[in-house]
Amino acid sequence: MVSEKPATGRRKIKIEKISKKNHLQVTFSKRRAGLFKKASELSTLCGADIAMIVFSPAQKAFSFGHPDVDSITRRFLSGSPSPPSSGLPQLIETRRNANAHDQNVELTRILDHIEAEKKYGEVLDRMRRADRSRCCWESPIEELELHELEQLRGALEELKKAVAKQVNNILIEPTSSLPFSAVNGGGDGGDFAAKLEIDNASSAALHFNNFGYAQKIC
Amino acid sequence: MVSEKPATGRRKIKIEKISKKNHLQVTFSKRRAGLFKKASELSTLCGADIAMIVFSPAQKAFSFGHPDVDSITRRFLSGSPSPPSSGLPQLIETRRNANAHDQNVELTRILDHIEAEKKYGEVLDRMRRADRSRCCWESPIEELELHELEQLRGALEELKKAVAKQVNNILIEPTSSLPFSAVNGGGDGGDFAAKLEIDNASSAALHFNNFGYAQKIC
DNA sequence: ATCCCTATGTATAAGCA
DNA sequence: TTGCTTATACATAGGGA
């Protein structure tokens, strides 16, 4: 028997150009993400600096750099002789996080966040509609129309999911008692990640608009 | 008994700088190899061009390019004028290919993340549209410290729950009241709110929509 | 393009050679 | 540093929404 594949799971593929354009794009996206993640992990784990430039099949360029492409490139250049274009504008400054470790952590977070960003774009869009004129969520919820509330809820769902994902990646480790603790405030992060279900409307006090910190930002 | 570990076999590790130098070195080697492999697969599968430069913790340089680092970097450079490298490591996306050959070849060229600009433009565009109204979520999540993230997560959790609940309430009671104003009086909420004060460093509002280049939009 | 899900294919953390 | 082995943690191909 040829034994059909009832499996919906992963299947082995041959490493050769994917013919189905459709498929190819999906694969590109997924793998690109995975690759990116791995790169950031490598830099975090080993403290290695990495610069990467990728051109998608559609010639769209993507780049990644830790700490940034420029510095890596420069260093690379200074190590070898033959810089035809050695004078690049470089406006890289030390970011607020002078701490390398923090940067690494941040990097990872950002990595995972890239997807969230997109999602967020949609969210923002929706939010704006439901928001009308006030700044953020300042306006009392009472003033929102029902459908607006629904949208808001949807937006929050997305938002939360996104954040959860990120946070989850950063502080999931239980018993965090490592050198990392310097930054990590505690270990309840993992717990949280698992419980990010929205429906648990228990007592949640919510005061969203005035978390106290939001206002000044506006 | 402390339930001994079946020991042999992969163990989960935390993504943070490896302390044991020994370990770090091994890990670096292995992961680097894996990274290149995946890169090559990606390039083969999707026909993408990739350039990559990696500095080992010992500052040893490794590079990989498909078809070669030079051409990629050049293309990258000519593609954009000046990088918006603000303070974040611009990790747009990454992908690595190796498929071919040189991996440990020291090359000379400038890698510029100008491409980030494109992405940046996109982001800006999107943000611009969704911006205007909501600004409190402005601070890039990338800038949040871990503990801030925890708070953020808490805030979101509450927020979401609250909204969900609210919507629920309204659905049941057409009489829109202002439950929220009072709800937040709870100890939980209060406490939470109080803790939400974040350092200026990262105006803790949540919001992640920019890869890091968007902070000044608001 | 992104999310979810499932069943696998793979990459790999430790150890030891 | 590179290989081999084991047992596992992760990544991801397909397919659907």
UniProtKB/TrEMBL annotation, chains A, B:
Transmembrane segments: none annotated. One of its GO terms (molecular function) is protein dimerization activity. Gene3D superfamilies: 6.10.140.920, Transcription factor, MADS-box. Residues 8-68 form the MADS-box domain. Residues 142-169 form a coiled coil. InterPro entries: TF_MADSbox, TF_MADSbox_sf. PROSITE patterns: MADS_BOX_2. The keyword Zinc-finger does not apply. The keyword Repeat does not apply. GO terms for cellular component: nucleus. Keywords: Coiled coil, DNA-binding, Nucleus, Transcription, Transcription regulation. It is found in: Nucleus. Signal peptide: none annotated. This is MADS-box domain-containing protein. It comes from Salix viminalis. The lineage of its organism: Eukaryota, Viridiplantae, Streptophyta, Embryophyta, Tracheophyta.
